[in-house]
Amino acid sequence: MKLSIITVNLNNEAGLKKTIESVIAQSFTDYEWIVIDGGSIDGSVWLIEKYADRFTCRISEPDTGIYNAMNKGILKAGGEYCFFLNSGDYFINGEVLKNFFSARFSEDVVSGNMFVITNGSITEKCKGKNDLTFLDLYLSLIKHQATFIKRELFQKFGLYNESLKIVADYEFFIKTVGFGGASYRYVNLDLTCFDNGGISNRNPSLVKEEKEKIKIRYIPSIMRQDYDLLVRYRNIMFVDRYVILSLFQRILGKTAKLISGKG
Fold it and tell me: Are residues 261 and 135 in the same domain?
């Protein structure tokens, strides 16, 4: 079996319905589907029962957090690759898995493009890159909502770190691709839409705190200042680029008004 789709849900009936509809619309069929519900008290369990024939495995019981639920799904998985499509996230169309696997990849970690959805509208498109650097990993270029992960990586490096509540997937990529020699490939295809209303968006301070712990755990102290400097330089570079672009647009706007006689 090529793929194990793992869907984690807790009290998100509307989001889960959107996710389910996007999976059952796929023309690609070489997958199993595992749904891990954290003991929802809304209509999620009813929805899971309604589509029970679509799932290879379904569990509804309390868990200790999203990564505990994802680890339950990994332990039930039998596919070559795992893909985490949590409730509220969805594939962009019914051909996306077919198109993606037509690329015939074999790398350990394979990413596509992801659209960020905020309050029902697309606010960002996240793309990968072919020549990945450690700084890219450090800056969270790999988005797990648009990434296929070989199941054997979890056997080799362990499951997600459940002591982390928000960024255990980020730590996993640092550990495997960054320091573990896992191979990576970027496929320039639009894959998923990610619902940005989750826990990470609501807890930026906890994201920062957990990433700092990961930096201390994995990056030697002699390198940390260098990486902080690189990140700071990168951020300044993008701010400068934005300021210059905005200034250029304002100049063009004023020039157009003068030419038209409306200035």
Answer: no
